[in-house]
Each structure stands twice: as C-alpha cells, then as structure tokens.
C-alpha cells in the first residue's frame, strides 16, 4: 500500500480522496471539495492500482472490489478527470503512457479479419441491449443538440438532417454508407430525393440482419442494399460517401488506405463526409480499459494524424465542423436510459456487465465534457468547387446544386 499511497499523494491535487484499503486502514489524499470515499476489498489492488490505475480501477469496479461510500462512480471519475494531468506526471505512469504511444500502431493493426472480430466484440451484442438505451432509430453516434434539454430523438434526427445537408443529396444519386450500423442513416438518405440508391456496408452480423429487415419493412429493399463487407472490398463509383462512427475503428496505420479508398470510389464531382470521434490534444493512445473491454482496436485520433493522410490522397477538405459538447449530452442521455432499464439489462447479461457499461458511458461523457475528446465532421471532395462557395446551403431545406 505504501507505493500506491505515494502515487495518490501526487495524483490528488484537486479535491479529496478518502480511501479505505483492503486491510481496513483509512487514508486521506488531497484537501477540499469534492470528497470521494472509496473502499478496496482486494489486497492485490494495492499493487495493481499503482502499476496501472487506468486499467485496474475499471476492472475493480466491474468486479465489485472497488466500491464507494456516500459517493458515486461519477464522483470518482470527475475527481480523476480533474487530476488526470498530475497522474501523467508521476514517473511510472509517464513511462506507461509513453510505452502505449510507442506500440499503439501495433494495437491498432486492423486487417479485414481482425476488424471483423473487433466489431463483433461490441456491435454483435444483443439487439435488445441497444434498444434499451438508444433512440428509436438506433443512432449509436453523437447527436446534434439545438439545446441541452432537447430530447435525444430530436437531436439524432437533427444530426441526420445535418449530414444529409452536407452531402447535398440529389435525385438518382448512389450513396455509400461505410459502417452503416443498424441502417437508420442509409434509410434516411434514401428518402431525401427521388431514386436515390444507398449501399451500406458493415462487419457486424447483428447490425446487418436488422438493417435488411428494416429496409424490407419500409419497402426500400430495391434502393437500399446492406452488405456484410469490409470497406476495403467495396467496388464501383458513388456520388456520395458517408461514414459515421466507423473511422475510430480504422487505425492510424490504415488512414492512407481509408482515404485512398474514398478517393477511388468517389465520382469526380462527388462529396464525402466523415463523422468521427477525435481529440484536441496531440496524438496519444486508447485507454487500456476501453481497449480491453469496450473497443478493441479502437482509437480516437488527433487531427494532426488525420489531415496528413487526407493531403497524401489529394482530397479537398471542403468543410470542417467540430462538435464539442454534443457527445457529452448524447452520452448523458444514453446513461440515463441505461440506468432506467438497468434491471432488464442485468437480466440480459449480469451485474458485472452493467457495471462495465456504467463505467464506459460515464467515463466517456466526462471525457467529452471535461477532457480533450470531441467529434469532427469533415467534408471531402476531389474538386474544389464540388460544393457551393458559402455554407448557406446548410441552412436551407433543399441544398442548391454546386456551381
């Protein structure tokens, strides 16, 4: 416990952590509000938390060996967020973070076979789970809020409308949706203009099945096709390409491949839109807990990692928008729905699964609300005049044709 106490003394610079260790001994780190009271019930955590708190704190919460008294998980995660930089300055943690950055390209290696396995880990969970906390259209990405109290369904509809406006959907066009999820965006885009055809590709068998069923239910199966296929295997030409919430799974060493495929598949006057999580700080590495339990192979990039790959493929960035607090509000809405349906989710899986997802949803929200995480929407084209000279077209119901 002595080594852990030494680190926590350096770590807690803002607020107070009152810790009862596995031997029943009370410790106090920091001073002033907020005060978080935490208890450890496994002696192995004294060493584990010293060696890798970003992994083992989440694991211990899942296992029930790290608990709170007169405090909550959210209180703890807020305290962690307020002191994150001081943790990184602790010598051992600094070494670990540098090591993770050095090997991150190995951890993000996502050939088609591994990409499918990584996708299945998260997206092939029971459809009933996602129905219990997502909106009715199962949009599993950042919504676009006009106000903090706007209902999730309205904010997700607003996100789809914004994407459609940026894509400037016109009659008879063929759209490619890379990472089409449960099909909601593809089905929406197909209905934005007459005779629009959409091809959606996903590696999730569960999402593919649901998407096909939804297209049939709407009698759109002749215009909307969903394929169980890796984006690298797509052939043909598309007037519009969209990718929402999938770029996080590409991996830095595959960015040239990704943007090269967009350039190859896009018509000369085509428009593409990439919607992805990123962060405003320099390149880093995925949290070891997130990588192990939630998104294996996933990574939210710095813009300095994305834009050079776009440049190397000679694509124009014709518009760029940063969504800052929108995802924090989206995650809060998901977390509230998750907790409201917690007993049903525990029946689908178990209590450990519920604690894992609570940790995931809350830590993600706090990262977007107080950390460096954000979402970007990047509009791309082969030709500089593929979109209008001004952004006025985003404010109108029917975007004009580019001139």
Please describe what this structure looks like.
The protein has 17 helices and eleven strands. It is an alpha/beta fold. The C terminus is likely disordered. It is globular. β5, α10 and β6 form a beta-alpha-beta unit. 45% of the residues lie in helices and 19% in strands. The chain has two domains: 88 residues, Nonspecific Lipid-transfer Protein, Chain A (2-Layer Sandwich), CATH 3.30.1050; 284 residues, Rossmann fold (3-Layer(aba) Sandwich).
Q: What share of the residues lie within helices?
A: 40-55%
Oligomer: single chain
CATH architecture of the largest domain: 3-Layer(aba) Sandwich
The end-to-end span amounts to: 68 Å
Shape: globular
Overall tally of domains: 2
Number of strands: 11
Mean pLDDT over all positions? 92
CATH superfamily of the largest domain: Vaccinia Virus protein VP39
Q: Could you tell me the radius of gyration in angstroms?
A: 22 Å
CATH topology of the largest domain: Rossmann fold
Helix tally equals: 17
Order of helices and strands: HEEEHHEHHHHHHEHEHEEHEHHEHHHE
Q: Tell me the structural class.
A: alpha/beta
Q: Outline the biggest β-sheet.
A: 7 strands, mixed
């Amino acid at each position: 416990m002595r080594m852990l106490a030494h680190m926590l003394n350096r770590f807690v610079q803002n607020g107070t952590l009152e810790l009862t260790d596995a031997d029943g001994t009370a410790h106090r780190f920091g001073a002033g509000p907020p005060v978080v009271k935490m208890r450890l019930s496994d002696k192995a955590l004294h060493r584990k938390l010293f060696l890798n708190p970003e992994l083992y704190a989440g694991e211990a919460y899942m296992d029930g060996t790290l608990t709170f008294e007169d405090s909550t998980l959210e209180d703890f995660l807020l305290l962690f967020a307020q002191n994150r930089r001081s943790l990184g300055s602790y010598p051992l943690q600094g070494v670990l973070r540098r090591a993770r950055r050095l090997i991150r390209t190995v951890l993000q290696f996502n050939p088609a076979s591994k990409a499918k396995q990584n996708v299945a880990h998260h997206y092939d969970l029971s459809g009933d789970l996602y129905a219990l906390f997502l909106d009715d259209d199962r949009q599993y990405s950042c919504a676009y809020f006009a106000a903090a109290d706007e209902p999730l369904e309205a904010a997700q509809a607003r996100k789809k409308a914004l994407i459609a406006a940026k894509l400037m959907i016109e009659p008879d066009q063929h759209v490619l949706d890379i990472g089409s999820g449960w099909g909601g965006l593809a089905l929406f885009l197909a209905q934005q203009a007459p005779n629009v055809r959409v091809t959606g590709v996903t590696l999730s068998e569960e999402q593919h099945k649901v998407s096909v069923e939804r297209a049939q239910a709407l009698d759109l199966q002749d215009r909307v096709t969903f394929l169980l296929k890796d984006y690298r295997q797509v052939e043909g030409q598309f007037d519009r390409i969209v990718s929402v919430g999938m770029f996080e799974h590409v991996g830095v060493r595959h960015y040239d491949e990704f943007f090269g495929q967009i350039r190859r598949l896009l018509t000369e006057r085509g428009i593409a839109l990439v919607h992805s999580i990123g962060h405003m700080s320099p390149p880093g590495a995925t949290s070891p807990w997130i990588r192990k339990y939630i998104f294996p192979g996933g990574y939210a990039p710095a813009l300095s990692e994305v834009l050079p790959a776009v440049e190397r493929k000679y694509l124009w960035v014709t518009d760029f928008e940063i969504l800052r607090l929108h995802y924090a509000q989206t995650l809060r809405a998901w977390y509230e729905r998750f907790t409201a349906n917690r007993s049903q989710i525990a029946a689908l899986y178990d209590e450990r699964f519920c604690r894992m997802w609570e940790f995931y949803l809350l830590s993600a929200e706090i990262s977007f609300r107080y950390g460096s995480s954000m979402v970007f929407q990047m509009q791309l084209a082969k030709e500089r005049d593929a979109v209008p000279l001004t952004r006025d077209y985003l404010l109108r119901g029917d975007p004009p044709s580019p001139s």
